[in-house]
Amino acid sequence: MQDVTDLPFMAVIANCGAPDYFVTEYFRVHSQSRLEKHILEAVTENRTGRPVFAQMIGEDIHHLVRSAKDLQEHPIAGVDLNMGCPSPTVYKKQCGGGLLRDPQKVDQVLGALREAVPGLFTVKMRIGFSDTENFETILDLVNKHQVDLLSLHGRTVKEMYRSEVHYDFIKRAAERISCPLLANGDITSAAKARQVLDYTGAAGVMVGRHAIRNPWIFQQIRDDQAGLPISEIPLYQVNRYIKELYEAVSKPHAPEQAQVNKMKKYLNFVGQGVDPEGKFLYEMRRAKSKTQLFDICDRHMPEDGDGTFAPEPYQGVIARPNCES
After folding, report:
1. 223-245: per-residue pLDDT in tens?
2. 12: which of 38, 52, 207, 288 is 20 to 30 A away, CA to CA?
3. Which positions make up the binding site for FMN?
4. DSSP-derived 3-state class of residue 112
C-alpha cells in the first residue's frame, strides 16, 4: 500500500504477527526514475525475518526492465508488477490499472519482465478497467509468460473500493491460471479469509487496508487455517499498537501536527473496530496534538479496561468520509 507499507510499518506489523511475505510500496518507473531510497530501505534494512517483494509501477518497457535488473542487485524475494492501482493520477498515465485497457501492451510488458527476471516474478491486478472485457485475455497472458504468482483484487479499477467484491471472478481466475492465485479485496477477518478461500479455491489471500485496522489478522488467519481458536484482541492492546505505530512512523524534527495528521490516516481504519457508534473516530479526527490524541486513545481503550476489538468493522463506521469502508 502506497505511503503505508514502509519499513517502520512492517516492523510494527511483524511484532503483531507478520504476513508470510511483505510487498514494498511501489517504485515509480519512468525515464528519470531511480530506486527511491526510503522504499529500498524496506528491503535492505528489513529485520522482520520475512521475504520482501519489490513492487514496480510503470508502462515504459525499457525502464521497467532497467529497474527490475537494478532491484535484483538487492536481497528481494522477487519482482512484483502493479497492474491494479486505481488512482486516477496513475491510470491516466497508462500505469497500474490503466494497463488493463491494453492487452497488447500487457503482453509486451509481461514478456520483457519475464525475460529480465530469472527469479520470482509476480503480478497484482484487478478484474478489469471499467468492465471485464479483457479479463480472460489478460489471465491467458499471465499463463503465457509464466508469472509465478498472481494477486487479484475482485473489483474493476473504476469501482475503486466502493462496490462489492466480485469473488466469482477470483474463482474463475483460480480455475484458469496455472500459477498460485491470491484473493484480494475486503479480507476483513480470519473468518472472511476462510469464506473467500473456500469459495474461490485461491491458494491464499492478500490483505491490505484491513491489516492497518487489525495487524493481528495474519496470525489469526494462520491459527484459523490450523484449526486453532481465533484469539480476541483486548482494546488496551490496540491502544499499545497505536502508540507503537506513532513512534515508529514519526520523522525526526517533523512538526507535531504533521505527525498527528499522518497518524490519523492509520486510525481512520483502526477506529472501525473500537466502538459501534464511531465515537473514537469522531474524537480522533479532531485531535490537534499528540497529547490530545493519546488521551482520546486512553479514554476509549484504557489499560485496565475489559473491552475487546471487533473482529469485523462495525456496520456503518466508515474509514474515511466519502470513501471505502
Report:
1. 999 999 999 999 999 999 999 99
2. 288
3. 55, 124, 153, 208-209
4. helix
In the numeric block, which cell numbers belong to residue 285?
479526527
Active-site residue identified among 16, 85, 95, 297: 85
| Each residue's pLDDT tens digit, 2-44 | 777 899 999 999 999 999 999 999 999 999 999 999 999 999 9
Instruction: Give per-residue burial for 248-282: e unless 16+ CB within 10 Å, then b.
Output: bbbeeeeeeeebbeebbebbbbbbbbbbeebebbe
Helices of type H across the chain: 7-17, 37-44, 61-71, 88-91, 103-116, 135-144, 167-176, 190-200, 209-213, 217-225, 235-249, 256-270, 279-284, 290-300
Query: 158-174 pLDDT, tens per residue?
Result: 999 989 999 999 999 99
* Residues 241, 238: Cα–Cα separation, whole Å: 5
Q: Is 95 marked active-site?
A: no
By C-alpha distance, which of 151, 153, 188, 178 is closest to 167? 153
Residues in the annotated binding site: 55, 124, 153, 208-209
Tally Cβ neighbours within 10 Å of residue 102: 16
Half-sphere exposure (Cβ direction) of 64: Cα atoms closer than 13 Å? 28
